[in-house]
Amino acid sequence: MSKAIVIGYLAKVSAANVNASHTEGNVVVAKKVTLPDGSTIPYISGQAIRRMLRDRLEELGYPLSEPFAKVSGQEVTPPVRPWEFADEDLFGYLDPSGGRRRTSPVRVSAAVGLFPFQGDRDLGTRSFERFGQTMAAGGNMFETELYANLFKGTVLVELERVGVFKPLETGEKGEKALPADERKKRLQALLEALNLLWGGGRTARMLTDLSPRFIAYSRLKVKHPVFLEALVCRYEENKYWLELEPLKNALDKFAAYREDTLFGLEPGVWGNEEEIRQALQDDGEVLTVHEVIEKAKSDLDSLWNGSSA
């Protein structure tokens, strides 16, 4: 019986600050985490990734629950109709009264940069001359930390919880469950949302495509973020090179629990593209990213019909 699907992905950022931290003076600081050697790497928070996925779901035709929430002071009470709103189903909610709470079936890691932050900054200015004043009046100057990096992320979905709502989650007496076809459609829409991923701050001048350049998809008999620490890269000859040993080790470690596995990579990004294809072909099909998304959607059609879950 399938318990989860797990997706590991790598997204390329050429020059941006997708998810800023705080402001220091006139500098917009990038979110960063410090490594044991004292260097720092940028990251995009899991909350930001979830926000982007919600927005893409809305664009795919799924209305969000947020416009129907009740706001009182600092408290936001969601509508608590997960059978109606896919975002409440997939991403959970909390009634501030404490009576109703749904933990997200979709678990998302932060997207973590694989290379150290180099201290680059973008300089922005606003001239008061554009507002009818003289050039001598000057203007504003501000800076934004930015980076070029490759980000790794993981998504894990608890399959048996998608479209199934317990009494403690809804405040109703009995358990409610959506038809199998609707559960599958919501999962397939989530995959498409990942395929269309973009967003974050400063998109007016630092637009970024966060859709995967490499993706690993696996349907599992257990719940485990198989690929979370398995995606490692180096940069040589103006190309990214995927380190295969950590990934192969993770695949071997969970071979007994993997029911279906797929890999996708974008042509022209990887210096060792052919080596990747050869190394992974025994563990699953190696396709392009969009082909993996479509194949994974088809794989989900086998759920809840007696064949796999």
Total beta strands: 21
Q: Estimate the strand proportion.
A: 25-35%
Number of domains: 1
Based on CA atoms alone, the radius of gyration comes out at 22 Å
- Helix/strand/pairing class, anyone? alpha+beta
Distance between the termini: 4 Å
Q: Bin the helical content.
A: 10-25%
Poorly predicted residue ranges:
none
Outline: globular
Put the structure in a nutshell.
The chain is of the alpha+beta class. It has helices spanning 46-59, 86-91, 167-170, 180-195, 244-253, 273-280, 289-300, and strands at 4-16, 20-24, 27-30, 32-34, 40-44, 70-72, 75-77, 93-94, 101-102, 106-108, 111-113, 121-127, 139-145, 147-158, 164-165, 176-177, 214-220, 232-236, 239-243, 258-265, 285-287.
Notes on the structure:
This protein is of the alpha+beta class. It has one domain. It has seven helices and 21 strands. The protein has helices at 46-59, 86-91, 167-170, 180-195, 244-253, 273-280, 289-300, and strands spanning 4-16, 20-24, 27-30, 32-34, 40-44, 70-72, 75-77, 93-94, 101-102, 106-108, 111-113, 121-127, 139-145, 147-158, 164-165, 176-177, 214-220, 232-236, 239-243, 258-265, 285-287. Strands 1, 4, 5, 10, 11, 14, 17, 20 and 21 form a nine-stranded mixed beta sheet that branches. It is globular, with a radius of gyration of 22 Å. The model has no long low-confidence stretch (mean pLDDT 94).
